[in-house]
Amino acid sequence: MEMDEFGMIDWSLHGGPDWSVALYLVGYLTAGFGLGMLYFHALRRSADLLATGGRAWTAAALTLGRLALAGAMLTFAGMQGAAPLLAMALGFLIARSCIMRRALKATP
């Protein structure tokens, strides 16, 4: 089997400087964090609507919207490669831990 000059993953981003890879992945990490904050805020809001007897259609719309947005964003990151997908998923999980920490501090 003949090997070419690049490996399976080209980390150079088409000849860019080395720091551009880190900046590229930090962008996906930040986008994942923002997505996670939005996702878990919508989750909390839909749970509050259902618990207080609010409008079920609003809760259903929030649920469908957050699932569609998360699915679309993570699919887009996955189409860019494994590293962007992992960076976005990590940002999403960091946002989850921040939201959970805030919720645990708020409960008596």
Structural write-up:
With 108 residues, the protein is mostly helical. The chain has a domain at 33-106. It is built from 3 helices and no strands. The protein has helices spanning 18-51, 56-80, 82-106. Helix 1 runs antiparallel to helix 2, helix 1 packs across helix 3 and helix 2 runs antiparallel to helix 3 (82-106). The radius of gyration is 19 Å and the shape is elongated. The termini are far apart. The mean pLDDT is 87.
Assign a percent range to the helix content. over 70%
Alpha-beta classification: mainly alpha
Low-confidence stretches: none
Shape: elongated
Largest sheet: none
Enumerate how many helices there are, as a single number: 3
Number of DSSP strand runs: 0
Summarize the structure.
This protein has about 110 residues and is mainly alpha-helical. The protein has three helices and no strands. The mean pLDDT is about 85.
Question: What are the SSEs and their pairings?
Answer:
Layout: H1 18-51, H2 56-80, H3 82-106
Helix pairs in contact: 1-2, 1-3, 2-3
Name its key features.
mainly alpha; 78% helix; 108 residues; elongated; single chain
